[in-house]
Specification:
This protein is mainly α and about 80 residues long. Helix content is about 85%, strand content about 0%. The chain has one domain. The protein contains 4 helices and no strands. The termini are far apart.
């Protein structure tokens, strides 16, 4: 078991040493913010922000609907008491 762990650790270290430093940095970190990869990353961020904004807007709208509905039911209950 110990030899297998040492072998896997050694293979992992060899793989990490073989990776080129330029391949591990994204274009934004590497200094090229006008590359297609950076533009795609920015588009992805905007898309995710749009999805999150839509979900938050929907949740807020639902709670406003519940508050208005609750007020209407309370008002109708008061009218029926009279």
């Amino acid at each position: 078991m110990r030899t297998m762990r040492v072998l896997l650790l050694g293979c992992g270290m060899v793989c990490l040493a073989a990776v080129n430093g330029a391949a591990t940095a994204c274009p934004a970190c590497y200094g090229r913010s006008d590359s297609p990869m950076a533009q795609g990353m920015n588009a992805g961020i905007l898309a995710l922000l749009g999805v999150i904004g839509t979900v938050l807007f929907g949740a807020a709208t639902f709670f406003v609907f519940l508050a208005r509905r609750s007020a209407a039911v309370a008002k109708a209950a008061e009218k029926s008491k009279d």
